[in-house]
């Protein structure tokens, strides 16, 4: 499913699951929970969206989005009902679970690459060249060994 399609269906799926309208200005628990889920997932699916633009999708301003995004983790950790509803939503709509998982994998890979870059920066120039040469050979070896499976590095 394309990112735009996923975003288009997100609001509808949340409204349906929580049986609310997240655009309304009411503050029942279910509506607040639904907006918490919406902001969090939307930001995962489209991390480049501004907080103002995200808020506008549900008639809110950027400060409300900031507060809600900060509150999401706290609610998930300490509010049993919110945790249950969020987990249930994710199980009911696994397409969003995949997006969350991919983000976590990306963050972990990015952190690992950052560690490698920091390590390489501590090496003198000769050791850097040797490290990069060995890394290139490893990459070529990986591509050659997996070409039969039609996989690409």
How many strands?
A: 0
Number of structural domains: 2
Rg result: 21 Å
Q: How would you name the CATH homologous superfamily of the largest domain? A: DnaA protein, C-terminal DNA-binding domain
Which stretches of 5+ consecutive residues score pLDDT under 50? 148-153
Enter the CATH topology name of the largest domain.
Chromosomal Replication Initiator Protein Dnaa, Chain: A
Following the backbone from N to C, one meets helices and strands in this order, namely: HHHHHHH
Overall mean pLDDT stands at 81
> How many distinct helices?
7
State the shape. elongated
Multimeric organization: single chain
CATH class value of the largest domain: Mainly Alpha
CA distance, first residue to last residue? 23 Å
- Strand content is under 5%
What structural class should be given to the helix and strand makeup?
mainly alpha
What is the CATH architecture annotation of the largest domain? Orthogonal Bundle
Largest sheet: none
Q: Indicate the percent of residues in helices.
A: over 70%
Structure description:
There is one protein chain. The protein has 153 residues and is mainly α. The chain has 2 domains: 99 residues, Orthogonal Bundle (Chromosomal Replication Initiator Protein Dnaa, Chain: A), CATH 1.10.1750.10; 47 residues. Helix content is 78%, strand content 0%. The chain contains 7 helices and no strands. Helix 1 runs antiparallel to helix 2 and helix 4 packs across helix 5. The protein is elongated, with a radius of gyration of 21 Å.
């Amino acid at each position: 499913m394309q990112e735009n399609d996923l975003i288009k269906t997100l609001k509808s799926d949340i409204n349906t699951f929580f049986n609310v309208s997240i655009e309304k200005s009411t503050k029942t628990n279910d509506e607040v929970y639904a907006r918490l889920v919406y902001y969090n997932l939307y930001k995962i699916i489209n991390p480049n969206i501004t907080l103002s633009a995200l808020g506008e999708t549900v008639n809110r301003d950027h400060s409300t989005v900031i507060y809600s995004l900060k509150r999401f983790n706290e609610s998930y950790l300490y509010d049993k009902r919110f945790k249950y509803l969020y987990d249930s939503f994710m199980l009911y709509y696994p397409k969003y679970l995949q997006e969350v998982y991919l983000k976590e994998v990306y963050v972990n890979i990015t952190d690992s690459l950052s560690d490698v870059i920091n390590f390489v920066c501590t090496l003198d120039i000769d050791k850097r060249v040797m490290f990069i040469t060995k890394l290139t050979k490893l990459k070529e070896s990986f591509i050659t060994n997996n070409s039969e499976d039609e996989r690409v590095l």
